[in-house]
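chain below, 201 aa
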Amino acid sequence: MFYRPENGHGLPHNPFNAIVTPRPIGWISSRGSDGHDNLAPYSFFNAVAYVPPQVMFASTSAKPDRGDTKDSVAQIRETGVFCVNIVEYAMRDAMNTTSGSWDRDVDEFDLADIEKAACETIDCARVANAPANLECRLTQIVPLEGAANFLVLGEVTGVHMRDDCLVDGMFDVLRFNPLSRMGYRDYTVVREKFSLKRPGE
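prediction:
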């Protein structure tokens, strides 16, 4: 099968995000200029650079109470900071609860009964028991082609790692099993790993 996206795919559901899979989930916490906290998952998320460490996530829809975007981007525009909270399998239901299109005044930490902790380098809340948290300062918001598509880039200014996830000085994902997004309503979980040496190593 071949299709041009501009002409449609002709399938019952869009296959695009089932093709680009699995995708890590950036559980983004932000705080508005009014002090209101927000927490929402984004599967268009990844790390993009080592030095300085940088991450990105993309928001691809809008809410009527936020104009051209959603709560996360709107609040990051205001304060210039956000935190990426890593999602473990054990928190899948809480993460899913925060994915709803809730009113801008709803605090998803409270809604999903998630414990907050304060960030160290930025004025933002983080998921207290997440396997890891990346505190970020906004570097740029890039408008993308299409309505309500925004790429958010940030420099990591602080890193939290849960002590039980460190094994012999290495961050071990099998200690918490990262949750990843697939297509449609599907997710997957990392339960095994293997290593490969690069040519010449």
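Helices lie at 16-19, 71-79, 92-97, 108-111. Residues 71-79 form the longest helix (9 residues).
thats it, cya
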